[in-house]
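[Discussion] Sanity-checking designs against the backbone

I'm trying to build intuition for which residues belong where. Below is a structure token string of 280 positions. I'd appreciate it if someone posts a full sequence so I can compare it with mine line by line.
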């Protein structure tokens, strides 16, 4: 499908394993804008008290709404380069020529193996703390931090293991319906909002002014984003608000036909990419 042909936009604020709170939002495109038709932390349409989005229920819901849909998930959808490695023996970060690891060396200014400029203290043998580690981080996270000033969570950073594992399981379970960077996107709500509105939205979570900041955000999105559901319920729930922004990011990706960066495209295709609004 071409981006313009998508009609449904799903957003998932994914919780970690074993029952952590997960929120799902569903938007539909209509007359040049998107409408929020469902958002919540429990499966809709059940009699009595609906259950949370445990894995099997989440997979079922996303498969059910897959036709014509783009899915944006706020969690790592690719493993780090070292975790993906299939070499029979580790060449170490200093000597590995895997494209992503080589990209990391360039990012910290370390010369390539064999380069005469390699010397003690620059090539990692001088006792300096490593700035970047391709076994816990991905290139897209470095780009987000260094080029856009937005600090993401590392794929395998402290406390991220269960969330990353669940996201990778979810990607695998949905393979027949969603394909990465075709109709499945890794997104980051905070990055989307900062790119759209600047630093004045950084308090949209965990701050005394959170409710007011979120209300201003939705007012500024009013031409693009409308609600068939109770908007105030979304304003008062971290997970629901993020799920809506995940789905809205997917909507903007399709509407505006965002593309992967031309530079180092092959690295981001294999190592992963976090989709954010491009510079205007």
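Best answer:
Here's mine. Compare freely.
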């Amino acid at each position: 499908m071409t981006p313009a042909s998508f009609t449904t936009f799903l957003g998932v604020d994914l919780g970690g394993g074993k029952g952590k709170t997960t929120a799902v939002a569903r938007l539909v495109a209509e007359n040049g804008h998107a409408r929020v038709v469902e958002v919540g932390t429990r499966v809709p349409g059940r009699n009595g008290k609906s259950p949370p989005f445990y894995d099997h229920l989440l997979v079922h819901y996303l498969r059910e709404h897959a036709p014509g849909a783009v899915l944006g998930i706020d969690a790592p959808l690719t493993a780090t380069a070292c975790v993906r490695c299939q070499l029979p023996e580790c060449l170490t970060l200093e000597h590995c020529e895997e494209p992503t690891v080589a990209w990391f060396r360039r990012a910290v200014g370390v010369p390539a193996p064999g380069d005469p400029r390699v010397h003690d203290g620059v090539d990692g043998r001088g006792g300096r703390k490593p700035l970047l580690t391709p076994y816990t981080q991905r290139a897209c996270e470095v780009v987000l931090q260094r080029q856009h000033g937005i600090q993401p969570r590392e794929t395998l950073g402290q406390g991220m293991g269960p969330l990353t594992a669940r996201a990778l399981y979810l990607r695998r379970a949905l393979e027949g319906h969603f394909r990465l960077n075709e109709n499945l996107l890794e997104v980051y709500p905070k990055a989307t909002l900062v790119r759209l509105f600047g630093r004045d939205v950084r308090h949209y979570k965990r701050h005394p002014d959170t409710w007011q900041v979120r209300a201003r955000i939705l007012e500024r999105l009013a031409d693009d984003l409308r609600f068939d559901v109770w908007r105030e319920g979304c304003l008062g729930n971290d997970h629901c608000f993020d799920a809506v922004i995940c789905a809205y990011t997917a909507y903007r990706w399709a509407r505006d036909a965002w593309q992967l960066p031309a530079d180092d495209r092959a690295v981001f295709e294999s190592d992963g990419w976090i989709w954010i609004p491009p510079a205007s």
